[in-house]
Amino acid sequence: PAKQSSEESLVMQKRLKLFAKNPYLKEQAFVVDPAKSVQDNYAEAIRLLDLKLSEIKETYLVRTFISVSVSQNGFIDAIIVFSAGVNLVREIFVLFHGRSSIRDLLIIGRHLYYSIAISGSEVIEQGSEELFSKLSTDGIKNIPLLGKLVSSAVDGFISAILLSRVALLTANYCNVTRIEKDKDLYPTGKAILETARHLTRQPVAKTREAILSLDDIKSAANWVANPMLFVFGRTRDFVVDKGEVIGSHGKGLLQRLFKKR
């Protein structure tokens, strides 16, 4: 993005040249209309790209929420989140600019570091408390191993919050045309939490529904070994419909975990 108002139009023109070759925009029949202003053409391109961006964000946040909730292993969680974050940044850059590079990843990584330093812990604390409250209501307090279930789901939601920050910051970097300072790129805590909450609303609701139906499996061996895996096993139709897990670290993981026997 430009930091001088005189350079903003040049940024738009440069990006419009890339948009003219963009495969997704071509599918949407987008063309730069010479009868329109640079600003109007740019706004239309961004409107179309945002539709695809919403799909990408939902895919990554939902699958990461599920994968981390099931893994129950801090090391694996870190690999899942790191891999998802890198792939998410790359996919957003490819969507907007047709390519991604190591330099792009380093730039976003630097901004992400400062963004988390400014407002990282508050968002995570608020999000985890909110989900804990939602999954620990009176109707499910007697479920066995409830603490383990809720803890796993909260871990998944925290990971979704982290990816929400990555997605919003990267999108801002790719579509904002002018900033006064780098901080203008950083999403607010409210925006981060609302994005994570909105995009994971279905798996969270499915998780709660599945937990409420656990009164008949108190002694099941697979339930004791990995209760969260058992819970998601009861929502397999929803999970499998979401397709393959993102990243080479876990391609097809959920299908293998929840495949019908």
What does this structure look like?
- The chain has 261 residues and is mostly helical.
- Helices cover 71% and strands 0% of the residues.
- Helix 3 runs antiparallel to helix 4 and helix 6 (121-135) packs parallel to helix 8.
- It is elongated and about 65 Å long.
Sequence-ordered SSE layout with sheet pairings:
Elements: H1 8-19, H2 23-27, H3 38-71, H4 74-97, H5 102-119, H6 121-135, H7 146-175, H8 189-199, H9 201-212, H10 221-225, H11 227-233, H12 236-241, H13 253-258
Tally of separate helices: 13
Q: The biggest beta sheet, please?
A: none
pLDDT < 50 runs, ≥5 residues = 239-261
Mean pLDDT: 81
| Terminal-residue CA separation | 52 Å
Structure classification: mainly alpha
Shape: elongated
Q: What is the radius of gyration computed over CA atoms, rounded to a whole number of angstroms?
A: 21 Å
Task: Considering the chains and any ligands shown, give keywords for the structure.
261 residues, mainly alpha
